[in-house]
């Protein structure tokens, strides 16, 4: 894999009439031409949050307001705001502005903003256009691609939502310079995930370059984003609505969602919970005889190197995990479905872990 | 067209992998086998309202509870309950029951229940199965078929929703015996609509048989339902998400929705507002030179014969209409789109009525 410094690069998510491009380049935010080809009409609603707005909102609006009807909604920041009430604020603003079916929503922010705006677009007048402009590494490599939208419910993460594809994903890699370290690490959790589930060579590359990635080497980050998006695009194109193989993208997420929900959304970042969850999945795969001790040690090392937590929260016993995991969307009837690893670079979907073994594994897993 | 007394009859809505059958017969509610082929798994949530539950809920549940996990949600009755808050009650019940992606929602009731349950199914865990069991004439001939789901917003009808197709539509014509007269008439508005937009021979048939239909002749009602569903299925199959021709199903609805929203949902029944709205559309089509006086007189006669209102509410001036009509989902940018009639049996979609002419038409239209 070679990096092409500073050049804009693009991928296509191949979904028939719902196909769309992902553009990756520094400075996309400042170029009004990057957005224009994907607008459905003259009405544009940019939705962002209080953290991102001061950094990027005016830059994105520049050059659009001359001839378009551009409005904005600025929501509070944080996973705890990912609720139906926030989406209702977007709908209220659209209706107050008299926006019709030809309007376009623009999600400017991280995964929370992207998921909520996508869901708002999916259901406004039964579906309008939207564009993802992700500003965190996590949303750039994961949530902005693939059309999963939605909000949390007190009983579970992303329980209310829709599959609704954006018209385009515009990734301005310049936004990563302002990202807090903790969020950079959280994004790297999803990057590592792609290596673990499907691309052992990418995992090798990440091991070799983790230091430079944490130092925000622009070309290496750009390369990691492109490679991650390419893997996600392949998986999504093969299984848009998660009837089967797409579930592999949930490596670490069943454990991770349980942690997030139990701790209260926002205490752990999503990527942090996924980091610990991936190590849990690797260790359970080892117990089932699929990975070697050396494999698990590699997983632990790269998760630690990325600055991610490895232990589960001290406050969560096995029951706390199991109660949340039973509500996971992947489950069919009463069986808990997990994404595990047959090998490093090869995920599998498994719903035959004996309940007693799963409980004993959860009892024994390290807590911090 | 001949009626086949008391035999179950079926149609198919042809939407590729989203195709589904419509079954029409007396007694379907009492036959658990009518529902079973369309269940996604063992978890079944029946949603109905306080009016319908005492009449049909136990009959529908009979024979299902032995081997399935059957739960219920009973909502208040009425168009004013068609809100996001009601849909949240359904989601809360699904999550409290621990229902997963393989659950099936069953909408037992009229159009309000069907629209809300369809929307709840569209967004629960990003989409689960649902079955329509419509118990009013209006929902049997219109809202249960075609996958339009959603709720009202204080600023407009059906502003929040999704296209989400049911697995099956089960129409028990026996439910019409308990339907209030006013609701029978409201349902006939949509039946008349099918004749007006697409089937002049059906319009002739309706004129000849309106008396017997109001007297609830079972075979004639069954015939009217089948013919209506067949027309709707054809239109929907050609344009599932209303990019074009499907909008013709909105004859009378732009004026009608404005009446409903202005009066407060539930004061006028939807079918009543559509009845007046269709006469308004016919009279505007006459002004544009497309229909004859005799055509308009026929429309007025059959609307009156069905027991539907012809005048607009006295409290609504032209501004009150226009303000609501500007928010109609059919509009593109700033133009009001109307469904009008080129001839009886032939609808057209028109957004070139000069604003001054539309205002003058609204000023002059009879009020009561």
UniProtKB/TrEMBL annotation, chains A, B:
It catalyses: 7-phospho-2-dehydro-3-deoxy-D-arabino-heptonate = 3-dehydroquinate + phosphate. Its EC number is 4.2.3.4. It is an enzyme of class 4 (lyase). Signal peptide: none annotated. SUPFAM superfamilies: Dehydroquinate synthase-like (SSF56796). Its cofactor is NAD(+); Co(2+); Zn(2+). It comes from the Bacteria. Binds 1 divalent metal cation per subunit. Can use either Co(2+) or Zn(2+). The keyword Cytoplasm applies. NAD(+) binds at residues 77-82, 111-115, 135-136, 148, 157. Residues 73-185 form the 3-dehydroquinate synthase N-terminal domain. It is found in: Cytoplasm. One of its GO terms (molecular function) is 3-dehydroquinate synthase activity. Keywords: Amino-acid biosynthesis, Aromatic amino acid biosynthesis, Cobalt, Cytoplasm, Lyase, Metal-binding, NAD, Nucleotide-binding, Zinc. Pathway: Metabolic intermediate biosynthesis; chorismate biosynthesis; chorismate from D-erythrose 4-phosphate and phosphoenolpyruvate: step 2/7. Residues 187-331 form the 3-dehydroquinate synthase C-terminal domain. Zn(2+) binds at residues 190, 253, 270. Catalyzes the conversion of 3-deoxy-D-arabino-heptulosonate 7-phosphate (DAHP) to dehydroquinate (DHQ). PANTHER family: 3-DEHYDROQUINATE SYNTHASE (PTHR43622), 3-DEHYDROQUINATE SYNTHASE, CHLOROPLASTIC (PTHR43622:SF7). NCBIfam families: aroB (TIGR01357). Belongs to the sugar phosphate cyclases superfamily. Dehydroquinate synthase family. This is 3-dehydroquinate synthase. It comes from Modicisalibacter luteus.
